[in-house]
Amino acid sequence: xxxxxxxxxxxxxxxxxxxxxxxxxxxxxxxxxxxxxxxxxxxxxxxxxxxxxxxxxxxxxxxx
Amino acid sequence: xxxxxxxxxxxxxxxxxxxxxxxxxxxxxxxxxxxxxxxxxxxxxxxxxxxxxxxxxxxxxxxx
Amino acid sequence: xxxxxxxxxxxxxxxxxxxxxxxxxxxxxxxxxxxxxxxxxxxxxxxxxxxxxxxxxxxxxxxx
Amino acid sequence: xxxxxxxxxxxxxxxxxxxxxxxxxxxxxxxxxxxxxxxxxxxxxxxxxxxxxxxxxxxxxxxx
Amino acid sequence: xxxxxxxxxxxxxxxxxxxxxxxxxxxxxxxxxxxxxxxxxxxxxxxxxxxxxxxxxxxxxxxx
Amino acid sequence: xxxxxxxxxxxxxxxxxxxxxxxxxxxxxxxxxxxxxxxxxxxxxxxxxxxxxxxxxxxxxxxx
Lengths: 64, 64, 64, 64, 64, 64
What we know:
The structure is a homohexamer of 64-residue chains. Chain A is α+β, with helices and mostly antiparallel strands. Chain A has a single domain (3-58), classed as Macrophage Migration Inhibitory Factor. Chain A has 1 helix and 4 strands. The first copy, chain A, has one helix spanning 15-33, and strands at 3-9, 41-47, 52-54, 57-58. In chain A, the strands form 2 sheets. In chain A, strands 1-2 form a two-stranded parallel sheet. A two-stranded antiparallel sheet of chain A has the order 3-4. In chain A, β3 and β4 (57-58) form a beta hairpin. The radius of gyration of chain A is 15 Å and the shape is elongated. The termini of chain A are far apart. Chains A and F meet through β1 and α1 of A and β1 and α1 of F.
């Protein structure tokens, strides 16, 4: 603990960006709460933007 | 807010049906709670039916 | 299936409203996808508004 | 109810192992809590190991 | 990893039962997948039964 | 989007620390992905440490 689930639009982040997100989110818990770094878990979930609704509508058409 | 995560069997809904689910679920919050429509998020997650267990067994065999 | 997790600001809905949310969200799946009504699960999670950040800030101060 | 979401590294379990996980987790609720077996839902989510961070780093490189 | 989120009706399990659920679910991953025991996380979430809808209705009235 | 769910041990963070977590996690998405700050949602969930199992055991006894 702590445990972080991140939901992102699919294809919005490269692997380098995902690594940076994981590193920085983890460091945030170490800095702010003094968490044991090895006990910070960060799980990314990519969601197709056609499956993500804001204001009653998907934010993008499906990929073809 | 509100935030809604929907888990569905993969392939159970067409894109038109997903759009309708998002629209109607969003309207439900606007109607019942007076939510600001642009602050209603609905995220769909498709789950293979072979990875969904009810009563101790997957509800379908894996696709081939 | 389907399975729906709803996250709401704590205290934003009365029990009557929650019942109506559950009923209408369930009916949406029955209408749009032909889901078996008894296989629609809707789980509500109330989240204190001081624990919900939008734009980098909690949307309300903690209750006292 | 109960409802169980399991997150696993993608490709870490065969279908036979997933069936066994679902069966045994379900039985655990029946045994320990006396749950109605048909009301135990277990949903598996496979997560690529490159999207799972422990200690600030993904636990594996992306598949190619 | 693996990571397990369990949602239970509030008050349905004693602390002794929760400990047994955690122990047995963890052992299941060790036995079936050969998971490293210290890398199995199990998080319990108690949900009031009045906030859990099956078939369009909460499964219990709110506690008073 | 993006959407972040954070699970923390109950009582592990003060409100000031929670505000800092929300601010810094949000900024991480703005910096790394160029996300629109107002479209970053961060939801905190406090979990009693007696309901969080690592290695087959809760990480703390229940509060009394």
